[in-house]
Design a protein that fits this description.
- This protein is an alpha+beta fold.
- Helix content is 35%, strand content 15%.
- It has one domain: Molybdopterin biosynthesis moea protein, domain 2 (Alpha-Beta Complex), CATH 3.90.105.
- It contains 3 helices and 3 strands; from the N terminus they run E-H-H-E-E-H.
- The chain has a 3-stranded antiparallel β-sheet with strand order 1-3-2.
- The longest helix is centred in the middle third of the chain and has 9 residues.
- It starts with 22 loop residues before the first strand and ends with a helix.
Length: 74
Amino acid sequence: MSKWRDTDYSNIVIGGPDDQDVVMTSIEAAEYLKMHVKTVCRLAKEKKIPAKKVGSEWRFLKSVLDKWLSQEVI
């Protein structure tokens, strides 16, 4: 019997509660932030906005963007 069949996957939840973190594309993040998508990608590239690069695409966590937006600028 192969190893993956012996693994317990009972803790995997598809869908889950609505309060779990949302991953957004650069287009979705731009819409959420009311910015142009090129601006969002430029800020991500310059590390001025929190994001992760997945392949050639940027990904943003909504909760992290919310924290970033709420930070006080000095």
